[in-house]
Amino acid sequence: MSKTNLAETLQNYEITCKTLGISMRKKWNKEYLFARRMKSNSTKISFISKSKLEGLKENVKDFVLNDLCEQQRAKYFKAVKPARFIEGLIDTDLTSIASESAIEVIKTTFNRQFLETISSKFTVYEGNDICSAYNEANAIVGCMGGGKPSEWFKVYADTKDLKLVALTDDNGCILIRALLWEQKGKYFLDNTYEQGAINGDVKLRKHYQYKLYAAVLKHLNKRKLDCKFLGYIDAYLTPSQKAAASEPDREINPILEGDKEYDYFPYSDTFRSICKLDNSWCRAKNEGNTDYILLEGQSGEDMNNNLTTCFCCDGQFSAEDDEIVWSNFHEEYMCTDCCIYCEDREEYIMSDDTSYDSWRNVYVYSGDIE
Ligand SMILES: [Zn+2]
Fold first, then answer.
1. Which residues contact 59 (CB under 8 A, 6 or more apart)?
2. For residue 149, what pLDDT is reported?
3. How much distance in Å is there from the Cα of 339 to the middle of ligand 1?
4. Contact 85, 113 (CB under 8 A)
5. What kind and span of H or E run contains 202?
6. Is the pLDDT of residue 3 over 50?
7. Per-residue pLDDT tens over the stretch 230-283
8. Phi and psi (nearest 5°) for 240?
9. For the whole model, what pTM was predicted?
10. Please, which residues have CB within 8 angstroms of residue 35's CB and are 6 or more apart in sequence?
11. Kind and range of the H or E element at 166?
12. Class (C level, CATH) for 120-242
């Protein structure tokens, strides 16, 4: 619908519907007025029904319709998904039950056509803009979709040469996004996340994935690019892109350059862990190895951080390395520097609460001594 307008497209659909035995409402183009792509949400159609307009003219004093006025669009017009819009134009009373599957095809096709033709712009985010892009992109579906705290994405912002690439609509809203990792001129385009309207249709998703892939190639002025979803968009690739895609992955380990401690982390798709020793991002999970931060959680945590806080000194210790123990007596965790095992009690007790019995050569709980 980039070259033809919505009205023309709908007229073509009327002809197609007729061929398929689907009846459209007789006066649909006189009942659904001023239909066009919604400005604030390019995945929807904005229109006003004839009856609504008549009601407004009757009940609102001095009402004059201005279909170009955004406030009027927001206040009086309806905004619906394209599939829902075309469904509304179909006269179900006149359409036989046999055509139900044909209606589904019409809905899917129209929906896809409308959403494939959103005018989009290639956008690159760097540094802290990556954080805000993650945080603001409310329409994006997936575990790290909109509304997560910006702080979680700080490790991305601080990673050398890492960028977030996206296709955005005229309103600046992200339609699809992916991380573009770089190390010494080698690139890796990560998994994509997109708006629900796009994500819900496999073909549509592939359409946008390929569009983003092609935009990145152009941006980098390259003919090939290592990419997470390359196999998924195989059918869309040109022969030379396909040939390039068959080359083996080139391993990179981008470097996180922030020198501060991070409290929160995102879920990360391809680079699953960060090595604390050299700050490099790794594809391996390194699960259970506390030299690595594991970015597998969806609650902002380092999933390898299983350290426990000592109730006495507030230090953090690893239970696996027996640096910290549970005391039933105190009902708290204590590090082995802060407590002593008392045989009489068969318990770990806070050092300050113990005394040394030199006659028996054991520590005892002070409260047990007369
Ligand atoms: Zn302690």
1. none
2. 87
3. 8
4. no
5. helix 202-220
6. no
7. 989 999 998 888 877 766 567 899 999 977 789 899 999 999 999 999 999 999
8. -70, -35
9. 0.80
10. 6, 7, 10, 45, 46, 47, 85
11. strand 163-168
12. alpha beta
Tokens, residue 31: 């009942």
Would you list the domain boundaries of the chain?
6-116, 120-242, 307-368
Distance between CA 153 and CA 258 in Å, rounded?
Answer: 12
Write out the residues surrounding ion ligand 1, Cβ under 5 A. Answer: 310, 312-313, 335, 338
Q: What is the CA(310)–ligand 1 centre distance, in A?
A: 5
* Cα-to-centroid distance, 69 and ligand 1 (Å): 67
CA of 356 to the centre of ligand 1 (A): 20
Indicate the average pLDDT of the chain: 90
Q: How far is the CA of 260 from the centre of ligand 1 (A)?
A: 25
Place of tokens 């892109």: 241
Alpha helices in 159-201 (DSSP H): 196-199
CA of 342 to the centre of ligand 1 (A): 17
Q: Is the dihedral of CA 298, 300, 303, 307 positive or negative?
A: negative
Contact residues for 163 (Cβ-Cβ < 8 A; gap 6+) = 124, 125, 126, 130, 179, 180, 182
CA 325 to ligand 1 center in whole angstroms: 10
Contact assessment for residue 193 and residue 138, using Cβ atoms and an 8 Å cutoff: no
